[in-house]
Amino acid sequence: MNINQLMQQAQKLQQKTQQKLVEFEQKEFEFDYKQGSVVVRMRGDYKLTNILVNDVLVDKDDKTTMQEMIAEAINAAIESITQDRETIQQSATGHNLPI
Questions:
Q1: CA–CA separation, 89 vs 66, rounded Å?
Q2: Nearest 10 degrees: Cα torsion 32, 38, 68, 77
Q3: ∠ CA(31), CA(36), CA(73), 5° rounding?
Q4: What is the Cα gyration radius of the chain?
Q5: Three-state SS sequence of 73-99
Q6: pLDDT, average across residues 73-84
Q7: Which one, of 33, 44, 51, lies nearest residue 85 by Cα?
Q8: pTM, entire model
Q9: Where would a tag sit more exposed on the chain, N or C end, judged by fewer CB atoms within 10 A?
């Protein structure tokens, strides 16, 4: 195989990976945190699309617990999406490349 063929294969792989990442960024993920206490919906580009809070958490005398659980749920969603993104990159290249 000559260098031109290698370059073409590398370019095709890069295009394929980029397309997968574009599709991934538009995909919506749902994360159920602590058995429905907080449900976070977020796209692959980390855009938050919705937060559902169980009525059990809505206590006007204890807003702190609800706020902490929402923050924890969002952080868990971001961590999960980041891992999925890294899996796409690794499967296409065998390496974890920054975007």
A1: 35
A2: 40
A3: 45
A4: 19
A5: HHHHHHHHHHHHHHHHHHHHHCCCCCC
A6: 94
A7: 44
A8: 0.73
A9: N
